[in-house]
Amino acid sequence: MENIIISNPLRLDKIKKSFQSLQPSQIQVISDFDRTLTTNFINGHRAPSLIGLLREGNFLTADYADKAQSLANYYRPIEIDPLISLAEKREAMATWWRKHFNLLISSGLKKSDINQAIQQRSLQLREGFHELFNFLQHKDIPLIIFSATGLGQEGIQFLLRREKLRGNNIYLVANSFIWDEEGRAVKVNEPIIHSFNKNETILQDFSFFSKIKDRNNIILLGDTLSDIDMVQGSNCNNLLKIGFLNEEVEHNLAAFQEAYDVIILHDGSLEFVNNIFREIIL
Q1: Where does 50-115 sit in CATH, by number?
Q2: Nearest CA-CA partner of 261 in 229, 233, 220, 231
Q3: Is 34 noted as a catalytic residue in this protein?
Q4: Computed from CA positions of residues 34, 218, 160, 262, in that sequence, does the dihedral angle turn out positive or negative?
Q5: Measured between alpha carbons, how far is 176 from 151 in angstroms, rounded to an integer?
Q6: For 205-231, how does the pLDDT look when each residue is reduced to its tens digit (9 = 90+)?
Q7: Among 92, 142, 151, 226, which residue's beta carbon has the most beta carbons within 10 A?
Q8: Is the CB of residue 222 less than 8 Å from the CB of residue 36?
Q9: Cα dist from 88 to 85, 93, 203, whole Å
Q10: CATH 3.40.50.1000 domain locations along the chain
């Protein structure tokens, strides 16, 4: 496939052989959500984020966008500054998201608005996800979906429901809200997931941790270099990393080849992923 790059063919063969010797009960799949399980582009246009869907649909108060941008203008430089320590970044990102969640609440966020935005189909699962979902469900392999976006859990749940994908092997590690009887957001649930704690360490705070803690062989799907950190804190014996490089390929390819075993270019489908899953999980 012309859109597939194998960083090190010999290493990939070795990883595949290691997985072929395992039982499905020893394996888990960890994946980012936005632009990994969903497409980066729709009809040639960059797909919006979950929050972007709400903003563009005018579901929130008129001043939401400006206030959210002000927060981003302050905290985004901290997030990307290489001279700021990781501890400082973690504290700043937690503060940013907490302020943003309070802004969403004060801007009138309603659960029904999230559902309505999802139904508009401006967010699409990557081609081949239904096949991947069915395969993992059949093999009883957990799919842990990480999302540090502001509307992760509810938005993902509505999207899966829209696509008629229901199963007990999907676990969401994402931000979520507490809703009142009329479906208005009143509080954000803890722990808050952000770009610097999006890893397996935080899974210990989730009820499903006991079901996956002894599955020490991981297949990881991501679309950024930082997505590799999702396995941080895990006791990992074997790791297969598959990355989606959706844009600016020439600029980012070398770094992706260092980080990922397989790279899928140009917003490609999950066809190769499904083929390799069938090959290594017997």
Answers
A1: 1.10.150.340
A2: 220
A3: yes
A4: positive
A5: 7
A6: 778 888 888 999 999 999 988 899 898
A7: 151
A8: yes
A9: 5, 9, 22
A10: 4-40+124-280
Nearest to 122 by CA among 184, 52, 61, 220: 52
Indicate if 140 belongs to the active site: no
Q: For 4-40+124-280, which CATH superfamily applies?
A: HAD superfamily/HAD-like (3.40.50.1000)
Considering the chain, tell me which residue range(s) the CATH 1.10.150.340 domain(s) occupy.
Answer: 50-115
Sequence-ordered list of residues with C-beta below 8 angstroms from that of 215, at least 6 positions apart, any chain: 25, 26, 27, 28, 142
Span 118-177, pLDDT tens digits: 988 778 999 999 999 999 999 999 999 998 876 678 999 999 999 999 888 999 988 999
Residue given tokens 């869907």 in the structure block: 53
Which residues contact residue 83 at a Cβ distance below 8 angstroms, ignoring those fewer than 6 apart?
none
Q: What is the number of other CB atoms lying within 10 angstroms of the CB of residue 183?
A: 13
Which two structure tokens, joined as six digits, stand for 7? 């960083």
Among residues 34, 113, 227, 229, the one annotated as catalytic is 34
Is the pTM higher than 0.85? The answer reads: yes
Q: Is 181 exposed, middle or buried (0-12, 13-18, 19+ CB in 10 A)?
A: exposed
